[in-house]
Every structure is written in C-alpha cells, then in structure tokens.
Amino acid sequence: MGEVILTMKEIDKSFPGVHALDHVNFEVKKGEVHALMGENGAGKSTLMKVLTGIYKKDSGTITFEGKEVEFHNTREAQDAGVVIVHQELNMLGHLTVAQNIFIGREFKKGLSIDDKKMNEEAAKLFKKLHIDIDPTETMSNLTVGKQQMCEIAKAISHEAKVIIFDEPSAALTETEIEELFKIIKDLRKQQLGIVYISHRMDEIKVITDRVTVMRDGTYVGTLITNECTKDDIINMMVGRVIYEDPKEHSMVKSDAPVVLKVEHLNAGRMVQDVSFELRKGEILGFSGLMGAGRTETARAIFGADPKESGDIYINGKKVIINSPEDAVKCGIGYLSEDRKRFGIVVQKTVAENSTMAALEKYMKGLFIDKKAEKQVSEEYVKSLATKTPSVDQLVVNLSGGNQQKVVIAKWLVRNCDILIFDEPTRGIDVGAKNEIYKLMNKLAEEGKSIIMISSEMTEILRMSDRIVIMCEGKKTGEVGIEEASQEAIMNMATREIG
Amino acid sequence: MSKSGAANSQNKSIVSKLGGQKFIVLLVVVALIVFFSVISPDFRKYTTFMSILDYSYYIALMAIGVTFPLITGGVDLSIGTGLICYSLTGGYLIVQKGWPVWAGIIVALLLSIVIGCFNGVLVAIMNLPPFLATLCTCMITRGLGSIFSNNFGISWPTADAPGGWFRSIFKITVNGTKIPLGFLWVLLLVALMAFVLNHTKIGRYTIAIGSNKEATILSGINVKFYHIMAYVISGFFAGLAAIAYSAVFSTVQPGTGAGFELEAIGGAIIGGVSASGGVGSVEGSLIGVFVICLLKTGLPYIGLQANWQQIITGVVLIWAVLIDIMKKKKEKVV
Amino acid sequence: MEKIKQNPIVKKLGFNRIVLFGVLLLMYLLFCILSDNFAGLPRILSTLNYAYFLGFLALGVTFVIATGGIDFSIGPVMFCAALVSGYCLNSYGVPMVLSLIISVLVGALFGTFNGYLVAYWSVPPFIVSMASMNIAKGVASVFTKTQSVSWPQGVSEQGWFRKFVKVGNFPVGLLIFLAFAIICSIILNKTKAGRYILSLGSNKEAVRLSGVNIKKWEMLAYVICGTLVGIAAIFYVAAYTTVQPGYGDTYNNEAIAGCVMGGTSMAGGLASIGGTVIGVFIIALLQEGILALHFTKDYQLIITGLIVIVAVYADVVARRKKN
Hints:
The complex is a heterotrimer of chains A (498), B (334) and C (323).
Chain A: E1 4-15, E2 18-29, E3 33-37, H1 44-51, E4 59-64, E5 67-68, H2 74-80, E6 82-85, H3 97-101, E7 108-109, E8 112-113, H4 115-128, H5 144-157, E9 162-166, H6 174-189, E10 193-197, H7 201-207, E11 210-215, E12 218-224, H8 230-238, E13 258-266, E14 274-279, E15 283-287, H9 294-302, E16 309-314, E17 317-319, H10 324-329, E18 332-335, H11 339-343, H12 350-354, E19 363-364, E20 367-368, H13 370-383, H14 400-413, E21 418-422, H15 430-445, E22 449-453, H16 457-463, E23 466-471, E24 474-480, H17 486-493
Parallel strand pairs in A: 3-10, 3-11, 6-9, 9-10, 15-22, 15-23, 18-21, 21-22
Antiparallel strand pairs in A: 1-2, 1-4, 4-5, 7-8, 11-12, 13-14, 13-16, 16-17, 19-20, 23-24
Chain B: H1 2-10, H2 14-17, H3 21-39, H4 46-71, H5 79-95, H6 101-125, H7 130-148, E1 172-174, E2 177-179, H8 181-199, H9 201-211, H10 213-218, H11 223-248, H12 260-270, H13 282-298, H14 308-333
Antiparallel strand pairs in B: 1-2
Chain C: H1 2-6, H2 8-13, H3 15-34, H4 41-66, H5 74-91, H6 96-121, H7 125-144, E1 149-150, H8 172-190, H9 192-202, H10 204-208, H11 214-240, E2 242-243, H12 249-261, H13 273-292, H14 297-322
C-alpha cells in the first residue's frame, strides 16, 4: 500500500426528508483494495455518486492527488482518473466491444473512424488484463460477466487512477468472479486505488486490504481486513441501537391454516427452487440483501413476471397464476417497492386509485358509482389515517407514507387476504413508518396474511412472526421469530463462496 | 440469455454471415423477379426493367436518408410531401422565373436541408415525439409546395429542351438504347452512406442514440447535434429524391407525395432496420425498397391492380416489425 | 388570475377550456371583420359541415391518445369506409341503412386491427398507423377500382341520410355531434372503460399490477376510435357527396390538432372531450375563414401543423416542469 490518493472528509448530503450522508470520512491509498460495506441504504452508493459528480455535496471536501477537487459530472471525474464501474451497465448493445470502449473518443483516420486501430487497442487492453474477449464482437452477444469486463477495460483505458466497483460480482458466475479478482489484483499491483462495494463477506476477506463500514448515512469505522473477523464486520454493520423491541414470539395461533403454499418456484436466475408456506394471520418476513431475489419471487408469485415452474396453492387448492389479473382473483395483493412506477397512478385522485383493483364493485350498471367510490375511499382514508385534504386530491400531491396508504387501501378495497408488502417503509419518514407497522399488525390480527419483504433488519425483527432468508435467488434459511437474531440472519444472507 | 448469446455468436449461421435479413430479402427480390417473369412475358421486356428502375430511384433515395432517423429510434414522415415541395419549388423557379436548372436544383436541395434541420430541432431540442413532429412537417411542406407553385402542376424541362440535361443524369440514350444511369448513382450513394453509417462519427453516434440514448449522453457526446444530423440527412436525401422524381416524371402535381414516405420507410424496415432503433443498414434499405418497387410494378402484369401493392406493403410492414418483436421476445425469455 | 381559476364554476368548466372558447369567439369576430360576407348563416353552416366529420375523427383519436398511443390512419380509414360503403350502395344495390352500417363496420374493423396489434403484440402505434393508412388506401382503391364514389343527392329517394346533417337550415348534425360528444365524455369519465383507458395512459404497469387486463382496454380505445371514424365517414359524405380514393391524409393532422389543442396530452392519461370539441370548432372555423379570405387550403395545412407543434411542445414543457 502506498500513499493516500483520495480523501473524502466530512461529506454531508441531504435529500428532502433524508439525511443521506452525515459527515462521512473515507480514503483510498494507491495500490489498495478498499471495501465499502453497509446494509442497503447505508449510503455507500450515495457517497460514490457524490465522488463522481452525479450528486452535489452539501459540505465537506474531496482531495484527489493532493488537490481539492469537485467533479460536476462523470465525464469530468473520468478525465481526472476517477472511474466508476456501475452495477447496471451503461452499454450500447448494438455496437461492438471496441466501439463501446472508445465511444466518444474514437480514433480517426481522415474522415473515417479507425476501427482497426480501435480493435487493436482494445485487444491490447484485454491482453493486459488477461481477458479473452473479441473486440469485434457485438456487445449484446456477450454474457453479463463479459460485459462487465468490458466496462472495466473501458475504465482502465481512461487511465484511471481510482476505480470504483459497485457490486461487481452481483451478476457474475463463480469462474467470472475468479477472473475479476485476478484483474483486481493486477490493478492493485499497478498502484491503482480500488474501491470495492459488496455485500459478500467472503469476497471481502479474499480481495480487500481495508474495510470501511457505513450505517444509516454515517461513518462507523475502518478495519484492516487481515486483522478482523467476519463477525467484527457484521457487528459494525448491524450494531445500531434498536429503538423498538423485536417481537418476542409469534402471534400466529398454532392451528392457523396455511393460506398460501409455494412449491419449487423457478423464475430465471433470481428465483431458484423457492418453497415456503404462509399461514392465516401471519406476517412472514423475507430477509436478504439487495439482489437476493425476494422481489423477483414476489413478482413471480403475483404473475407480474413469467415463471418457469413451480406450484402455488391457495387454501390448499392448486391455482394457476399467469398474470396479475389471475393473482388478484385469487385474493393476492402486491405492494411494490417502487410505488411511483408500479403502485399508484400519480395523475389520478385518491378515490380513483383506491378503487383501481376493485372497480366492478363500484359500478351502477354501466357507470361508475362515484358516490359509493367516494364513500369507500373516505372510509379507508379515515381508517388508515391517510393525510389528504380530500379523496379528490391527486395522489401526486401526497407524501410517500400517504401514497403507500393509498396503495394499501387499494388492496383492502379489493378485499385481498394475502398481501405482499415489498419494502413497505422505503422512503417513508419515521412517524409514518410506525403507522404502517401498526396497520400491518392490525391487518394480521384481522386475519389477513402478510408477506413482508424488507432489507431493514430491525423491521424484520420487529414485525415478522417467521422469517425466510434468501440469497442469490435461493432460500437459504427459515427461522421462527423466537430463534431469530441479527447475526444469524446476516450469516444466512451473506453467501459463502468456496 | 447470456450463455446462449455467446454460443450463438460463435457458430453464426450461414445466413447471418451473408448479411442476415438483407440476404433473405435479396432472395425475396430474386424470387419476385422470377415469379413475375414466369407468369407474364411482358414483364421480361427491357422497358419493364427500365420502368421499375425509374420508379425505384426516388424511393430508394428517400429510403437511404430515412434509414438514419429510423436507426435513432425515430421516424421521418415528412419526406414524401417534402419531396414534392422541393421539386415544385425548384421547378417553379426554373420554369416560371427562368432560373438556370442548376440554380433550381440547388435551391431545392437547400430547402430540403432546412426542412430536415427543422425536424431535427423539433425532435432533438424540443423533445417532440418524432412521428408527430414530422407529421406536422409533412402537412407544412405539403402546404408550402402548393403555395410556392400557385397550385399548378409543374413540368421540369424535357430531355430535348434547353436545360433538360439534368434528365440525362438518370437516363441516357446510346444508339437508341436507354441506359439507366441513375441506378449507378443510387449504388454510389448507398456505398457512400453505408460508409458514413459504419465508419464515421455521424453514423456511429446515430446507432448509439438508437441503442441507448442515456448512455450516449453519459459518454460525453453532443447527442443533440448528431440527433439533428440524422434528420438533416433524411431531409437532404428527400431533396435528392426530388431531383430524381423531377427527372423521371414529366409533371409534378401539388398536393401529392403523401404515401411516398411509407414506401421508403417500409422498404427500410423490410430491409432490416429495427422499428425500435439501433439496428439497420443502408444497403438493406435499398434491397427492401426493391421488394416494394417490384410489387408496385409487377402486380399489374399478373392481372392485379397496382393498388394491391399498397395493401401488400402495409401487411409486409407489420409482418417485418412483428418478426423483429418476436425475435426480441425470444431473446428476453432465454 | 388565481382567484378566477379557483372560482367553482370556472373550475368545473376548466380554465383552459374557457380560454379556448374565448379564442374561438375572437377568431369568429376577427373573420367577420376581415371578410365582408363572413357573418351569416351560410358560413356557419359550412363551418359546421366541416366540424362534424372532423369532430368524430377527433373524438375517436382522443381515446387513442388518452392511452398514450396515436392513430394517424384515421383520415384514410374514413375515406375507405365512405368509399367501400358508397360503392356497395351504388354498384351492388345495397340498401342505404345497410350501407351506413357497413361504413361504421369498416371503421370499427380497422380500429380492431390497429388495437390488436398495438395492445397484444406491442407493435409501435406509429408503425401500425402507417401500415393501416396504406392498407386503407389500397383497399379503397381496389374495391372501387380507383373510381370516385358519389352518394345520392338530398332530393333523391335515398337522400334521407343527409338529414343527419341538416333539415332545411336547421343543423341537426350539431345536435347529433354534441350528443356523441356527451356520450364520449361519459364513457371517458364515468365508465370502467374510460377509467382504465386514462389510467393505463398514465401508468400502464401500475394498472397491470392492480390486476387489470390492460390489453383488453387498450385495444378497446382503438376500437372506439375506429367506430367513430366510421361514423365520421357518414357525416363526410352527407356534407360533401363525393369521395375519391387515395386521399384523406390531411384530416389526420387536423383531428389530432383539435385534440391536443383541447388539452389532451400526447403522453397519455389526460384527455378532455370538451376541449376536443372546442378544438375541432377552431380548426373548422380556421378552414372556413382562410377560404373566405381567399387563401387556399394550403395555408390551413401549414397553420394546423404549427398549432400541433406549439400545443405538443407546451405539453412537453408542462410535464417537464411537473417533474
């Protein structure tokens, strides 16, 4: 490890309603791989976006190669030598590998682009990185792993001094990960500073020199990888004070019937052979890290995405669900993690959104019975304590928590017995969170069954009667609330690699 | 998707080595020629051959140009009425105002570039949906053409009249045999624009915009400029098509031209340009145009009205797009 | 200004629509001043003739645009419907009533075709429109052997259908058109179909995840559009008698112009039938006024083109502001 190349000091950044980064410190040395860890929402990505100029910081300083800098966009950061390899790839699928790598700075020969030279240069790059990719191949023909290698090659061709890998291994196979590690070690040897964001504990142990842990937008501490154990890191990640007591024991009656049974569900890479049961009046927590396949599982059950195989039983009867329409008919409601895109129709009123899934109940012959619609919406506005001036208000004007309540109302109006809450409190402030929790408990008491997908450990421990843990598209564990502990869950949610 | 994708790329089929859809469409062209020739003896005549080529020039030229906006994921519906507008404007200056022919041609071409630029600004800077913006330009050029020409049909000078030299750009008579010189120019322009598409920044970024506009912007490229350029190219080639049209046909009528764009766009899409952008080739568009021209000229020879061609073009267009959509669906599932 | 906007009556009618209506009146006054013989019944009736068929086209396309789609095959499809049914009437001796039904059916058939491809196969609407436009022109030409078709005169036995437009000097057509506009407004605002059409135009995925069969409703919008286009054909021939194959494109833009001027958003989700009606009258008045001032129709083409550009750009800017 050499001298410090990049220092971020006291970085502060707020979004409306969220203090995303609270005076965070971070540094990278030449020739080190520095892991940045933390739960989802801890602020890792925000910190890196501040660094590369995607977000503007509120305060704090960034020093790069001894000079204070502030990049205004990724291009400026790139030119200076700070390059980010995104998790979602920014590729142009119809162009070749070499054309992608040199996009925006093509070599020219007279009027024409010198593709031959670009191919040669790309080949040289790949050779240097010991990657076997044909520069003339069309980008979309490559595997996700190879595409990522191309992104890395592109980063290096910018003469990067600091490279940030944002969860690079999430989409890679084992062999591809090994290849990636070889490249990273190579880069380290060439005295580059590398930031490695990952959830995978074992990768961290294998590849990194130091680990910085963040939690809730704050800096927790930095450890030397060799001198710490996996448990040390986990403790730093989860070590928050839990304001609310976790549930002590399951609230579900021992003779509660199984309302939903999923057997051997398969849907692409993110849902592999998932089986579980949900009982009446139960809140079943789905825990795991980002990209564990929980949302995909929920969407497959709900018929939003196609599934390959697997059986679903509702109240003991096998059902076929090929579309959300089928699922809703079976009494399943799904509250998406992305409300704005998948939950509400923002340009419609509270009343119109509330009856979206159950309009046929509010028809008077051919016409919508607006009176009845208004009445039922008002009822739910009252019972869910939704803050809105009237049910004729456009949903776009409500706060996140209240929008969520409108989505809940939508499914309650439809009288769904099985509700899937996908990250029900994401982007919602603390007060509203508690209300949503109370509401979920009340619904469970009334005999509704709830699947709650959550990345927040406290939320899982506070709400669930039972917890299913997923990792990499597979179910890796299931514990009753009585036996559950943060450490145990985190252990199952972080994968061991061989 | 990933693994089979890589496998696919390693053992490319013979068809895709030969140019994929282009090759298949070329076979269709040959099949059509054989089919019409077998059924109708008249079709085999040299004059038929000449008339097919005469019909093909302006459509082919429009198709070359419109390939660019199509590849960006847009479309240019104004090229058909635009063509008539440029031709009327140029012709009016030559016939009514006594301008020399070359000056009329230059004005027509300049006007085509201006209209192309206008389209580009509407789409790239004002962010209007391309089909809507160019539909408006379609109406505007139609109106302008009629106004410039005072609503009279205009005949550019005939071949033997003074100033009729421009007609021999497309057709010359040597020893009583007509030689379709225009086809040569079309081929040269196809080669030139294929070069532009594949080997220059304009082409490279046209594909990049159609492939992933956001990523292209993030790569630090002046996307607005290159987006406008695509429409300028389309406009300019509509201008060239106007010259070809004026040279081939005796009279240009105001108020016509609507529907030409469909033959060009249809040809391009049949020739392998993806309706969702990012994919396409100039030579493919040319071959696609010949499918349409053959249908248009050939159908009467087998006893069908020429208007069947419109119906068939519509159906073939949908069919070509459906194939594209199904191919994508398949990729997604794998 | 804000106060006026908050006034309950203004709110109910919609501020923008009131402004638009003001524009309509001003335009009328302007033409009356500029042209000597503009005021008076003949001009009004002639304007209305133009407004009827254009109005039906615009009402139809409003539904399609509400889903976030587009249909610019409506002009040629209208001509196709008028030609096919007229040819049946004249050459095959099909009774008048049946001919009128055929006209509506042809329109509905094209609407179904367009809607099926857009909703169930996700073919881009503009491609479908282009193809339909060509097919409609082709079918019309082939069916009529490229002959123009003239519908019976008012005095003839079969001329009764012209009473749809006017009886004596009384504009019956206006009543029928407004009745249809009200029905459309009810469909759009008070029925399940309208609710889902508007909602899916605003956020398709959210509506799908509410368990709604979005394909069905999206297709329905195109079918409604097609049906109204078929009706437009009847009003066209009742006013103008003769139809020629190969034309009709110009009406696409005029209908879409009326629609977007009236406040229907090209991005979908927002539509106003009242606005469309006023928009159509503005376009019709423009056409009449331009002719009265001894300009050719070409000026109108240009002006409508520019109107659409401005109206759509205003919508683009308004949406950008909101985000």
